[in-house]
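[step 3/7] inverse_fold.run input=structure_tokens len=673
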């Protein structure tokens, strides 16, 4: 079996990532000439939108060879609005290249990407790009990598910019390398001790060999640099990829399993981009999707240079594209024995309504959005019966523009998107309980309590299966997690622990549909009793502006109810960083563009959620609504209010209660007519 290495290339927008990819393909003889982003002829930006805008919208797959090793490279978007593509790629990598602009240094998206790479423990090479530009500083960027990213770096060279913009490279001496190694907590103690005893006996090659071992284990991160635009430093990057990043492990003796990291729908055919974890898959094989379902593969493809070509099979470590199988992004297919650790950091920030400009295109729009939702599940396309509107969740305005353009380009639909509504969350302010029973033998009690900021949602069962059968306990957990996505105000519940405290079932009388009613009602009752509070996202931003515009920009930012500080000043530009409510920053890019005549640069990422300034903000509830108990129960086919909470009913009031419930049922049915 051939050696295979899967790597991703990442960067903040405009750090030169796609240009680096072009140079890698050229340096490894895949292409004969280097494309440029500004002329729209790069290999990996193949979509019309990407060529016109000069940005990467979705990840692309290419391959090349280094010393007999097949390198599969995933080129990812740099703009924060397309972070979902970054997240999916990180989950299938053996190694990564993280490009940093030597001028701008570490930026907002750099930090987000690095945090995910560290969580997944991906061996990474830093490439400091744009070193030919005025204002580029290799040493300053190294310092930022250490201070802002807390990265255990080791520069393999130093770079200086000459007066004619050419670059001078000088290898790091063994003394310099040993100084960086001495900062490591583990992995180099024996080498350091030998070096201190007799420096002459430790060669630079011996030190580099140790760095290779440590790099492949994510113990240290090599740093090199250059200028991709001038093809400077790329040959060294190719060498580093081959020597400092680990190839995939070979696991052919196990049953086939794979991770679906991307879905594309082209010409009506669904294509799954998968990383093979174990075993081998051949064309026409049946693939297990669940305990009950399997599908037959009718096509397998791989990247061969800058082309996608058909093959008869793929095996452990390879990235393949398969057709004939219906699966979703993030799904494990085949016989997966042990679940991998997959990172998840993408949280959409805004909701928008989507409508067709021409009403005749409405059904066509629904079908098109289903396709886009298959490709990016974070869109969370949904329809509200209450409003008759279609909603999508997005990362930002740029993604909204791209969605609109894709609907036109791919589906010939003119779409209209509403103004954005910032996505809030809700969290309990106190411990509380809620219970609900449907029939005398089926029901439960839930407890809810607040957790620290950033904890997310935690579910725990504190009830023995003697009191509630495990199948109903599993159903309860599933329903709690499902309905907690829309709390009392319609926002997702977070920073909370929900506990199953008590329950009741009967082996003969209980049915799953009873718990389909009882669980959501108990959850909403517990939430109501916990007096939930609304949280809003806080933006962590960075603004680079001409020095002359600093005062006006600071004045604008001060109106955004945030905190700001000037962090650096160089070459006539000032960098301002701070935090502010996301809602108040939505129009800031437009305002900044006007203030600076297009010379200002703005980037942002969500840093945290805080108590919202508006505790009454709500969003439309999608689907059956357990907050309104009467319609919720009646909407369930065959359900009756007579069976709701019978345990609490007193005999002398049964007939009166029944009369009231029947009257409410009649009123509800009349309203529906």
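[step 3/7] decode complete -> sequence:
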């Amino acid at each position: 079996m051939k050696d295979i290495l899967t790597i991703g290339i990442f960067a903040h927008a405009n750090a030169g990532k796609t240009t680096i990819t072009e140079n890698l393909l050229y340096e490894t003889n895949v292409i004969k000439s280097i494309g440029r982003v500004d002329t729209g002829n790069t290999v990996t930006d193949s979509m019309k939108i990407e060529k016109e805008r000069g940005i990467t919208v979705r990840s692309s797959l290419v391959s090349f060879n280094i010393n007999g090793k097949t390198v599969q490279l995933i080129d990812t978007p740099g703009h924060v609005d397309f972070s979902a593509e970054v997240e999916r790629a990180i989950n299938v990598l053996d190694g990564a290249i993280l490009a940093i602009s030597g001028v701008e240094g570490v930026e907002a998206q750099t930090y987000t990407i690095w945090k995910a790479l560290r969580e997944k423990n991906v061996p990474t090479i830093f490439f400091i790009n744009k070193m030919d530009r005025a204002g580029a500083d290799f040493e300053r960027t190294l310092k930022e990598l250490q201070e802002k990213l807390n990265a255990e770096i080791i520069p393999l060279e130093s770079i200086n910019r000459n007066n004619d913009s050419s670059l001078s490279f000088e290898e790091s001496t063994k003394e310099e390398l040993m100084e960086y190694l001495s900062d490591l907590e583990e992995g180099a103690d024996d080498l350091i001790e030998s070096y201190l005893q007799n420096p002459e006996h430790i060669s630079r090659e011996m030190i580099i060999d140790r760095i290779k071992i440590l790099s492949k284990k994510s113990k240290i991160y090599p740093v090199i640099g250059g200028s991709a635009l001038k093809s400077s430093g790329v040959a060294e990057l190719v060498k580093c990829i081959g020597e400092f990043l680990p190839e995939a492990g070979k696991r052919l003796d196990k049953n086939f399993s794979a991770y679906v990291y991307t879905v594309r729908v082209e010409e009506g055919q669904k294509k799954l981009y998968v990383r093979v974890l174990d075993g081998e898959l051949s064309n026409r094989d049946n693939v297990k999707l669940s305990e009950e379902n399997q599908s037959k593969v009718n096509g397998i493809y791989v990247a061969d240079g800058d082309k996608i070509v058909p093959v008869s099979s793929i095996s452990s470590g390879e990235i393949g594209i398969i057709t004939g199988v219906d699966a979703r992004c993030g799904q494990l297919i085949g016989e997966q024995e042990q679940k991998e650790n997959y990172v998840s950091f993408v949280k959409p920030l805004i909701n928008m309504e989507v409508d067709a400009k021409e009403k005749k295109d409405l059904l066509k729009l629904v079908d098109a959005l289903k396709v886009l939702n298959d490709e990016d599940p974070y869109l969370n396309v949904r329809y509200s019966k209450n409003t008759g509107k279609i909603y999508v969740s997005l990362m930002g305005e740029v993604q909204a523009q791209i969605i609109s353009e894709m609907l036109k380009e791919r589906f010939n639909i003119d779409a209209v998107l509403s103004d954005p509504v910032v996505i809030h969350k809700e969290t309990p302010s106190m411990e509380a309980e809620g219970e609900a029973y449907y029939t005398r033998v089926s029901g439960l009690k839930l407890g809810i309590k607040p957790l620290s900021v950033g904890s997310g949602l935690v579910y725990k069962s504190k009830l023995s299966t003697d009191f509630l059968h495990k199948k109903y306990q599993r159903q309860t957990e599933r329903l709690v997690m499902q309905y907690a996505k829309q709390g009392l105000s319609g926002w997702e519940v977070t920073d909370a622990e929900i506990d199953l405290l008590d329950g009741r079932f009967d082996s003969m009388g209980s049915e799953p549909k009873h718990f389909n009613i009882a669980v959501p009602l108990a959850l909403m009752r517990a939430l109501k009793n916990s007096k939930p509070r609304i949280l809003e996202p806080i933006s962590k931003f960075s603004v680079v502006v001409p020095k002359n515009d600093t005062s006006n920009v600071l004045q604008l930012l001060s109106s955004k109810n945030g905190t700001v500080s000037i962090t650096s000043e160089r070459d006539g530009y000032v960098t301002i960083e701070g935090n502010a409510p996301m809602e108040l920053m939505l129009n800031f890019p437009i305002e900044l563009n006007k203030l600076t005549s297009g010379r200002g640069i703005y980037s942002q990422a969500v840093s945290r959620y805080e108590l919202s300034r508006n505790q009454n903000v709500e969003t439309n509830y999608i689907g059956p609504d357990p907050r309104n108990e009467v319609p919720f129960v009646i909407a369930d086919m065959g359900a009756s209010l007579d069976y709701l909470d019978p345990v609490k009913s007193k005999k002398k009031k049964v007939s009166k209660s029944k009369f009231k419930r029947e009257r409410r049922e009649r009123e509800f049915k009349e309203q529906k007519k």
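[step 4/7] annotate
The first helix runs from residue 17 to 27.
The chain is about 30% helix and 30% strand.
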